[in-house]
Specification:
Blueprint: E1 7-12, E2 17-22, H1 41-44, E3 68-77, H2 85-100, H3 107-114, H4 130-146, H5 153-157, E4 161-165, H6 169-186, E5 196-197, H7 199-202, H8 209-216, H9 223-229, H10 232-245, H11 254-271, H12 283-300, H13 306-310, H14 313-328, E6 341-346, H15 348-357, H16 382-385, E7 391-398, E8 405-410, E9 413-415, H17 430-436, H18 438-443, H19 446-450
The chain binds 2-acetamido-2-deoxy-beta-D-glucopyranose (NAG) (4 copies).
């Protein structure tokens, strides 16, 4: 059963008092739904907290609807990982401040000072953790339950499931974990399955000179982010953290506030604990931290700059050329079984540009340093879109006579194509989707988009 309220009974034997807490698990930080790209997949699909293998097959078409899934492309983000070296360095500095300078007397603060141990080290640099291995194994098993005709033992053994990954270790290991989820499920020990490393597909953002020059290395591209970090909302958060710790304000810079947020997020994502670090934020503070991170993603990988999404043109073209091949194959006439599924593992930086190119999560107003309050109900919310193991599934169906249909699922939930709302947008004909994206399919060219522009007014 999905989405039923969770009843938990706490019995305090000492006083024979009991009470029921509704929808509140005290092992989960109250701010866990604001962790942006550092969030758990289970917070996006809470029914998985009860059963990690639960799937909602009523969200996809099946033979009982006269439809059969013909081909699946899954673009998947790697699983839960350690912080990067840069973030660990900042976390170490904050921990130092807490040990040496904090004068607060709250019990959670003393817990950090006396019981909690700093266990993050710089060599962990973004590596996949065990929870991240599990994220991908579990996803593989759920996809086999959701698409039994495509992600099946027969298709895997026959070589009809293809694996493509970014060269980053955490992605390669995530791909291996996905495969291990399937081979474990079917007890396959006698075969190994190849994976293809392809950075032009899965790490295009690092290979696009114009994106690197105009966005990644250009401070003006993220000026709204920097303004927000120095603005009144963020100053208030920093002040509250300094007050809670009992340190002078100037010790808690934006980077220190972010490090504190990371401590809470990583302790939860990696170890599933609601750590004392989480006491440094109330929900209002967490929303401000969440916005700062969303602002950054918006300007670096989202709708903020056109090149952010255009850099994903190669991946976009590849997805559609695979779908084209599957759509053209006449299964009755073709003796050789066509490809059943392509599993492509990459990064948040891979998925966000592609979602942006497809037109998703576009709010009426851009996200800026000045409209935090106005965007309290924004659609561009990485906490919802881009947890660890986030995935975008393109599913091509045969539905008897007529053209194939295309369904899109984000994190295993159906989404409607933006701009296709007039025509049963959740399950359009494949041809309608191609017509809708026609100009991108014709003109979007990675090499051309990513070329450095000569200075215009030199
Ligand atoms: C399952 O998916 C269907 C279709 O998307 C949706 O209407 C329904 O609410 C989902 N069921 C649960 C229990 O989440
Ligand atoms: C914080 O503590 C360190 C080590 O005791 C000390 O050197 C430093 O001056 C303190 N900083 C402030 C602002 O109190
Ligand atoms: C990938 O897995 C191998 C083998 O388990 C391990 O040695 C390595 O540290 C992992 N690398 C990353 C980046 O997670
Ligand atoms: C990556 O994939 C693209 C698109 O299929 C292909 O053209 C290219 O040759 C591949 N690169 C590598 C290194 O395999």
């Amino acid at each position: 059963m999905l989405n039923v309220p969770v009843f938990r009974l706490f019995i305090y034997s000492c006083c024979l008092v009991s009470y029921v807490a509704l929808e509140r698990d005290f092992n989960i930080p109250a701010i866990a739904k604001y962790f942006n790209t550092k969030g758990r997949y289970e917070e996006v699909n809470p029914y998985l907290r009860e059963d990690i293998f639960a799937v909602n097959t009523s969200s996809v078409l099946s033979p009982s609807d006269q439809c059969e899934a013909r081909y699946l492309t899954a673009i998947v983000r790697h699983g839960t990982r350690y912080p990067t070296t840069r973030d660990i360095q900042e976390m170490q500095k904050l921990y130092g401040i807490i040990l040496h300078n904090a004068t607060g007397e709250e019990s959670w603060l003393q817990e950090i000072q006396t019981q909690w141990r700093m266990w993050y080290s710089e060599d962990m640099d973004g590596r996949l953790v065990q929870k991240g291995v599990d994220d991908l194994k579990h996803l593989a098993v759920r996809l086999s339950k959701t698409f039994p005709g495509l992600v099946s033992e027969e298709k895997l053994r026959g070589g009809f499931i293809e694996f493509i990954t970014s060269s980053k270790h955490r992605c390669v290991n995530s791909t291996l974990a996905f495969k291990a989820g399937l081979t474990g499920l079917w007890g396959i020990k006698d075969m190994d399955f190849a994976l293809e490393v392809n950075d032009s597909l899965m790490r295009f953002f690092a290979e696009c000179p114009r994106l690197v020059q105009d966005v990644d290395k250009s401070p003006s591209a993220v000026q709204e982010v920097n303004k927000f970090k120095e603005g009144p909302e963020m100053r208030k958060v920093q002040q509250k953290i300094a007050d809670r710790l009992g340190v002078s304000n100037n010790l808690i810079t934006y980077n220190k506030a972010e490090a504190a947020f990371y401590f809470c997020a990583y302790e939860f994502a990696i170890k599933a604990v609601n750590s004392p670090w989480c006491q440094l934020f109330d929900e209002d503070d967490a929303k401000v931290m969440e916005y700062a991170s969303d602002l950054r993603e918006f300007w670096k990988r989202g709708h903020g700059h056109d090149i952010n999404s255009k850099a994903s043109c190669g991946l976009f073209q590849h997805v559609f050329s695979q779908l084209d091949q599957a759509a053209m194959t006449n299964r009755q006439a073709d003796a050789s079984t066509p490809l059943a599924a392509t599993v492509q593992v990459g990064h948040a930086d891979t998925l966000l540009p592609l979602l942006t190119l497809l037109g998703f999560f576009k709010d009426r107003e851009p996200l800026t340093s000045a409209n935090y309050a106005q965007h309290s109900r924004r659609s561009f919310r990485t906490s919802h879109m881009m947890p660890y193991a986030a995935n975008l599934l393109f599913v091509l169906y045969d539905c008897g006579i007529g053209d194939p249909k295309l369904q899109l699922l984000l994190n295993e939930k159906p989404v409607t194509f933006p701009g296709l709302t007039q025509q049963r947008a959740s399950m359009p004909r494949y041809q309608d989707v191609k017509d809708h994206y026609n100009s991108l399919l014709q003109d979007c060219d990675f090499t051309a988009e990513c070329q450095l522009k000569a200075p215009t007014d030199a």
